[in-house]
Amino acid sequence: MNELDKEMVFFIYLLENYAAYKNSSADKILKEWDDAGITDFIYNMYERYHSEDLQNAFADIDTLLVTKKKSL
Fold first, then answer.
1. How large is the C-alpha radius of gyration of the chain?
2. Does residue 13 form part of some domain?
């Protein structure tokens, strides 16, 4: 069995914690990120997000969602 790479492990951790922060489920949050087109961006922010407080990452994701929703 292959191990997940560190980026995927952190992405899952971030997703689950963000869902708890939003009092939601990971599948609903992932759908929201997918619908907004930001999932890949969040995944690729590993270097930044894993080295800072999760609340900073949550604030950044909240801003991304607001920005994307305004542009839709």
1. 12
2. yes
